[in-house]
Design a protein that fits this description.
This protein is of the alpha+beta class and 193 residues long. The chain is built from four helices and five strands, in the order H-E-E-E-E-E-H-H-H. The strands form two sheets. Strands 1-4-5 form a three-stranded antiparallel sheet, with helices on both faces. A two-stranded antiparallel ribbon has the order 2-3.
Length: 193
């Protein structure tokens, strides 16, 4: 399995020369990625796997290479190899096309899931932005009211408000520890009371 430029995974017979992260070497794979059309490869030379490479005998004889797609764009390829001579059986070609379709669907579903997660995070951030001004104005009004009656309570409220916003601004990403969340909630409750 490849993306548009590199090998992502390789499993099976071979000379241990197909490592994840390696650049795509076969012109046939590059052609499939550029055209979006499946291709049959009938020689080990076309597979960039000559008979005696790096002191090992390459067992790959033939291959079917099919594109992996996302939104009608080719994003990679799937290659099924044959280690025996002769024609590639039609069922192997159908298998390659079927597996490529399944992987392409999985790619689309993963992207849909990622987009859904981004939408949820955006909604939470929007809600957070709406709540903060309301909370801030209520808290400031409470502090103003206490400033006339109880200067030590006013001081406590200002310290808690500073802590609350320090926590808000320190938050990186959507996950924080339970301890931090409890401190945040306790500070919020103190200000609300």
């Amino acid at each position: 399995i490849t993306d548009r430029e590199r090998v992502l995974a390789y499993l099976g017979a071979g000379c241990e020369k197909h490592h994840p992260g390696d650049l795509i070497l076969t012109e046939a794979t590059k052609e499939v990625i550029n055209t979006g059309q499946p291709k049959l490869v009938n020689s080990s030379v076309q597979l960039n796997c000559p008979e005696a490479a790096n002191d090992c005998k390459c067992p790959l004889k033939k291959a079917v290479i099919v594109p992996l797609t996302f939104k009608d764009q080719v994003v990679g390829s799937l290659k099924l190899y044959q280690t025996e001579g002769g024609q590639l059986p039609p069922h192997v070609i159908r298998l390659a096309k079927g597996v490529a379709q399944l992987l392409s669907i999985q790619i689309e579903l993963a992207e849909f899931d990622r987009q859904s997660q981004l939408v949820t995070e955006a909604r939470l951030e929007s809600l957070h932005a709406q709540i903060n001004p309301h909370f801030l104005f209520n808290t400031l009004n409470t502090i103003i009211a206490y400033s006339r009656m109880d200067s030590s309570k006013t001081r406590q409220l200002l310290i808690h408000l500073a802590d609350f916003f320090r926590h808000s601004l320190r938050k990186h990403g959507s996950l924080i520890s339970l301890r931090e969340e409890l401190e945040y909630v306790n500070t919020y409750l103190f200000l609300e009371e």
